[in-house]
Structures are given as C-alpha cells and as structure tokens.
Amino acid sequence: MHKQKGPIGVFDSGYGGLTVLKEIVKELPQYDYIYLGDNGRAPYGIRSFETVYHYTLECVQHLFRMGCHLVVLACNTASAKALRSIQQNDLPHIDPERRVLGIIRPTTEIVGNYTKSRQVGIFGTSGTVNSQSYPIEIEKFFPDVTVYQQACPMWVPLVENDEYHSEGADFFINKYIRQLMVQSPDIDTIVLGCTHYPLLIDKLQKHLPPDITLLSQGPIAAGSLANYLERHPEMEARCSTGGSRTFYTTDDTETFDRQAGIFFGTSVNSRHLEL
Ligand code: DGL
Q1: Tens of pLDDT along 216-250?
Q2: Is the pTM of this model over 0.85?
Q3: Which of 20, 62, 101, 111 has its CA 20 to 30 A from that of 219?
Q4: Mutational test site, ligand 1, from 195, 249, 264, max ligand atoms within 8 Å of CB
Q5: At what angle are helices 217-231 and 17-27 packed, to 10 degrees?
Q6: Stretch 188-197: mean pLDDT, rounded?
Q7: Which atom of ligand 1 is nearest to the CA of 45?
C-alpha cells in the first residue's frame, strides 16, 4: 500500500484531453489533477501502433513518478493502441497497484442507449479507426448495433493550429460527414471519438442533419471515473483531495497556455516536461 496519496493523472497527445479534464473537474472538483499533453510529439493519430504505445507508456510512467496512482488516457488513439498492453503487460511489472483507464470503453458501454435506428457512426483519427476498437467494443455491449466509421485526419491539425473556425475547416468537416453518411443514411447517433473534436461541435452541427445525436466524451468519461472511484474505494483513498490542477506539456509552455485555455475554458499556467 502506498502511503502517499497522489493526484489523478490525465494524459493526451496534446490539447484534446483538456476537453475531458474540464468535465472531470466539474464532476469531481475535490481531487488534485495533473494533466500531461505530449504536444511535442502530437499528433498520435497518424503514427504506428508501436510508436503510440511507446510514447504513451513513457508519459504514463512520468505521471506515476509525479505521484499519480490512477491515470486516465483521455486520448482515443492512445486508448486504442496502448491501453491493453500497458494494463496487461506493463502494469504488473511497474506497480500492480496503479491503474490506467481508457476512454473508449466508457463510450461504447452507453452508445447503444442513444440510437433508435441501431446505426451508429464514429468519427476518429486514422489510428483509432484502423484499430477497429469501436466496432469490437460496441459489439460486446450492443450486438444489434451496426457501426460505421470515418477517419478524419484533417480535423486534429485544424484544431491544433487554431484553424477550426475558418472556411477551410468547413470544407473538411463537410467532406468527412458526407463520407460517413453515405455509408448509411440511417445513422442517428455519432460518437466524437477523438477528444479534439468537441471544439468542432458548432461546425459539425451546422453540417449534420439536425436529428443526429452527437456524443462528446468529456461528460461520459467524467461519469465513468466517478463511478469507478465509487466502486474502488481502495483507489479513491489514494487520490489526494487538495483541488489543485497542474499542467505539463512536452512542448513550448507559452503556446500550450495560449491554446489550452480554449480547450479547458480557463487560463492555465503549464510547466515543461523534458522527455
Ligand atoms: N485527441 C486524440 C484522440 O482522442 C488524438 C489526437 C492526435 O492525433 O494526436 O484520439
């Protein structure tokens, strides 16, 4: 048993996980949090399985060294490509009492409750889509649901480069929406399966048919974490409750602070992490 309590770690390849952290702190404000964005090596969505796994493991280990007992991968790409190996192969050696949770499972557990047509769409990075994680996981909980996926490789760069309000963004948003909807006009529920995409929600709503339900993962992940801590009092007891939020980026802190405010909703003051 670790004597020292620690913050909850929240990890993403860049800024996207801040849309998740924002909802987590709304739901569970009492805990301390450390956010780590691997901006220096983002985007992850176009990288190989091995690369995403090694980058994610390295960042998780940094969060463990900073005192976190529990880390949330607020990144679909990392959850799709690294979570299982970390949970099954690495954690038993590193420390069997620490935990790493992903963001895909909580979404797939509930998506079937929203769709009437039983036709669900997923927008994600190429890495997430190619991993087939969403269709595989949704099949376990809702075998009657058919899943259609669309990779949106231009959306993360639009968000990371603050171009998501531009006319260029409309072009690429429309393009991937059409490519998804042509697969099945009966899709009535779409998962924003990348934590960057909630920033595009206004434009997505503008271009999508009005009766489509769009699911953002922040509130889902926050509810799932609250539920996890209730079911695991031994882990809850290891989470410190000072209400602090600490931000690390592997890239330039000034740029991070400027952009992060948009994702997190309030200004942040980050520290640099040298990998
Ligand atoms: N935000 C990450 C996700 O949820 C992906 C961003 C990236 O490509 O690095 O998948």
Answers
A1: 999 999 999 999 999 999 999 999 999 999 999 99
A2: yes
A3: 62
A4: 195
A5: 50
A6: 96
A7: 8
